[in-house]
Write a structure and sequence with these properties.
The protein is of the alpha+beta class. Helix content is about 35%, strand content about 20%.
Length: about 190
């Protein structure tokens, strides 16, 4: 699918996952959407607290325009052709027998869930594009997200379209990006970078 490569035994699923902006506007089945969210549901989390919440709109439903309006105009231009728009939130507190305590790992855990969502989507023939180009306050207000939850990001899900469908300034950028070398991100012992 892509020309990315690595010198490890990495499964091609990870190399094929990338974040296109060109989506074809096709319908996603309820079964596929449930499977994608189910993959996120099984992500690991501290104390198995599962702090993630996924609010979503399916293209053309009663919530679509609200979700689209939460994105910054740049992202609205291309995300309007996605099949699903998702807002990811995470619970900043863990409710225990002694009351609610701050969660140190809520964003980390929500990130694990989002990663699994993205990989499952790819296995079903969809692509995802995560973004923080959103109006966080508008997301909170429009979607009635409680104060204890952090709005993390938005995700567009859909089937990939030809890059020619994008606005002219984005067409050349519609390719998988490379990654830093392993030596730049993983250090034996002390921090080295």
């Amino acid at each position: 699918m892509t020309n990315r490569n690595t010198d490890t035994a990495l499964d091609s699923l990870f190399l094929n996952r990338w974040s296109p902006r060109a989506f074809d506007g096709s319908t996603i089945s309820e079964a596929d959407l449930r499977t994608i969210f189910d993959a996120a549901r099984w992500a690991p989390s501290a104390f198995n607290y599962q702090p993630w919440r996924f609010l979503y709109a399916v293209r053309g439903d009663a919530n679509w325009e609200t979700f689209l309006s939460i994105l910054v105009p740049f992202n609205q231009d291309w995300a309007q052709n996605a099949s699903v728009l998702i807002i990811v939130a995470s619970d900043t507190l863990m409710q225990g027998p002694d009351g609610a305590n701050p969660s140190h790992s809520h964003s980390f855990d929500a990130g694990a869930a989002w990663a699994q969502l993205g990989l499952q989507a790819l296995k079903l023939g969809y692509h995802t594009h995560g973004m923080t180009g959103i109006d966080f306050d508008k997301a909170r207000e429009s979607l009635a997200i409680p104060d204890r939850f952090r709005v993390e990001a938005a995700v567009a899900v859909g089937r990939m379209a030809n890059a020619a469908t994008l606005p002219e300034g984005l067409r050349d950028r519609e390719v998988p990006s490379d990654r830093k070398a392993l030596a730049e991100i993983a250090y034996a012992g002390k921090f080295a970078g």
